[in-house]
């Protein structure tokens, strides 16, 4: 039986702040829920809008707990710029059963990858350099299927596999205690003042 499939594309562009970049955060791709505000997809979607994902709260508590959590796209970009954080997703597009297209899970991404129904993003020269000269974090645990996706992404972009093996995996900010998760993130995220900002330059 042939399933009724649709193409799901990640519409969020890589974000690289002006000035020094201290580290990069990678994710798989944004589902409709994750990029929506009040169930409406904005014309310029950005990372982690879902109320079920505490990414921005966790990141704020980990890096600068005295700051207010950024809410709007502009506030989020300003926060990332202030702390020198670049962000990108690794999946560009994949085919999915139509009834699952609103909120695809990582499990469905893995299945699409195995079935050769998934395309990775091709990164620009600036992000490619950052992926080889800055600490890189990924927002989930480094289980085998995630490692396979990252291997495919790094291979497509002709980035040596030794850099992929240096990725640091952060526990998911979804359905967690934000304060506890922030403490866990803070223990592994390189603070800006101690970053390797001059590495590779």
Quick summary:
The chain is an alpha/beta fold and 201 residues long. Helices cover 32% and strands 15% of the residues.
Number of helices: 7
**Whole-number tally of structural domains:** 1
Percent of residues in helical segments?
25-40%
The SSE order reads EEHHEEHEHEHHEH
- Principal-axis shape: globular
Please name the CATH architecture.
Answer: 3-Layer(aba) Sandwich
Largest sheet strand order: 3-2-6-7
What is the radius of gyration computed over CA atoms, rounded to a whole number of angstroms? 17 Å
Class computed from helices, strands and strand pairing: alpha/beta
Low-confidence parts: 34-39, 194-201
Q: What would the average pLDDT be, to the nearest integer? A: 84
CATH superfamily: Uracil-DNA glycosylase-like domain
Question: Could you please say which CATH topology applies here?
Answer: Uracil-DNA Glycosylase, subunit E
Would you mind describing this structure in some detail?
This protein is of the alpha/beta class and 201 residues long. It has one domain: 3-Layer(aba) Sandwich (Uracil-DNA Glycosylase, subunit E). 32% of the residues lie in helices and 15% in strands. The protein has helices at residues 55-63, 73-83, 106-114, 125-133, 144-156, 161-164, 178-186, and strands spanning 5-9, 23-27, 85-89, 91-97, 118-120, 136-138, 168-169. Strands 3-2-6-7 form a 4-stranded parallel beta sheet. Helix 1 (55-63) crosses helix 7 (178-186). The longest helix has 13 residues, at 144-156. The chain is globular, with a radius of gyration of 17 Å. The model is unreliable at 34-39 and 194-201 (pLDDT under 50).
């Amino acid at each position: 039986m042939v399933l009724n499939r649709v193409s799901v594309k990640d519409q969020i562009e890589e974000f690289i702040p002006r000035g020094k970049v201290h580290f990069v955060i990678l994710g798989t791709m944004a589902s409709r829920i994750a990029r929506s505000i009040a169930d409406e997809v904005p014309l310029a979607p950005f990372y982690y809008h879902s109320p079920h994902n505490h990414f921005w709260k966790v990141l704020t508590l980990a890096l600068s707990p005295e700051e207010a959590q950024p809410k709007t796209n502009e506030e989020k970009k300003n926060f990332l710029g202030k702390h020198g954080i670049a962000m990108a997703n690794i999946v560009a597009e994949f085919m999915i059963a139509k009834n699952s297209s609103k909120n695809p899970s990582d499990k469905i991404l893995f299945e699409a990858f195995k079935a050769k129904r998934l395309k990775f993003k091709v990164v620009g020269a600036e992000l490619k350099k950052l992926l080889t000269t800055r600490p890189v974090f990924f927002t989930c645990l480094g289980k085998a299927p995630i490692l396979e996706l990252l291997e495919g992404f790094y291979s497509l972009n002709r980035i040596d596999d030794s850099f992929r093996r240096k990725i640091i995996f952060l526990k998911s900010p979804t359905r967690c205690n934000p304060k506890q998760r922030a403490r866990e993130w803070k223990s592994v995220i390189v603070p800006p003042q101690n970053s390797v900002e001059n590495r590779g330059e």
